[in-house]
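Protocol step 4 of 5: obtain the predicted structure for the target chain.
Materials: sequence only (see below). No template structures provided, no constraints applied. The aim of this step is simply to have a reference model before the mutagenesis design in step 5. Sequence pasted as it appears in the construct record:
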Amino acid sequence: MSMTDFLPWQQAPARRWLAARERFAHAWLIHGRPGCGQMDFALAGASSLLCETPREGLACGQCQACRWVLAGNHPDLRRIRPDAQAVREGALDVAEDAKKQPSREIRIEQIRSLLPWFNTATHRGGWRVALLYPAESLNAIAANALLKILEEPPEHTVFLLAAQAPDRLLPTLVSRCRRLPLTVPGAAESVAWLQAQGVQEPAARLAAAGGAPLLALEQARAGQPVMPDWMMLFLDQAAAGGDGAALADALQAVDPADWVDGFQRLWLDLSLGAHGLPPRYHPAEGARIAAIAKALDPAALAHAAGWLQQQRRLARHPLNPKLLTDHAARYLLQAVRPR
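Step 4 output (C-alpha cells):
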C-alpha cells in the first residue's frame, strides 16, 4: 500500500472527513487502538490535503504533490516523530554511539524546528500539514510548546496528531483538537485483507492481535509465531507442573512490555474459560486453556490480573529484569495451579 492510499476500510470515512476541507479544523486528533491504522490514515490524509488533483477527495497518487509525498520531500509536509520511530521507518540511521539509544520521545527541539517553516509561504498557496505520531510520545515540554502553537495556529496549516493512547496526552492539548476516532474492520473483511497480503493462518493471526489487522500483519512479517514459545511453555507447565525456572529463562529473552501484554491477553482467555466461554486471543489453544481455567482458583487469577496491570506501568523501565522474570514465572504459574 502506498503512503498516499487509505486502507480499504478507511476510504469511506476518509471521504466524509475530507468533504468539508474548505472549513477544515486546524488540528485533528486521529486515534484508535493499536493496529487499527491511525498512522496510515493520518499520512494518507496529509497526502489528500496536499494533492493537487484529488479524486473524490482522496489523493490521486500521480500529481507532482503526491510524487513529492512519496519521495519524502514535499515542502509543505513535516513528519514529527521520535527518533526511534524514524529509525524503524528507515528514515534515520542508528546512532554510531551504541550507548546512545534513539529517543522514544518527541522533543522540544522538534517542535521548535517548525517555527521557521510556519513563516514561509505554502507551495502554490495550498495547505501546510504537520503530522505528529505517535502523539502520546510528546514529552511534557514539547506538548506545552505545541499547545501554545495551537492556541494561535498559523494560517493554512493543519496539524494531524495520530495516537493510540489519547488519554496520555495533555487534556488541554486534546481540547484544542477535533477528535477523529477510528475503528477496526469486521473479522471477515480483516481476514480477507490479510489473505491478500499473503499472511498464513489469517484468522488465527487476527485473533492473536485482538482483531487489529495491521498488528496481525506486522507480527506475521516479523516472523512471530501466532502463540509465542514462552507462552506455549507456560501452558505446558501450567498443565503438567513446573517450578518456573525454564519459563523465567525464556522470559529474559523477551522485552518485559511484550510478555506483560501477552500474559494480559492470555489472562483474559483464562477468565473467559473459567466462565465456560471460548478464548478471544488464542482459539487454537482453546481446549488447553479451558482445562486449566476449569481447575484454577478464580481469586488467584483475579489477583494475578491486578499484578499484571501494575507491571504494565513499570515494564518499560524495570529495575531488575532478571528478578522480575523470576518472580513473574513463579507467581503466574502458582496463580493457575488447581484449587
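Step 4 remarks: DSSP finds 17 helices and five strands in the chain. The two ends are 51 Å apart (CA to CA).
Proceed to step 5.
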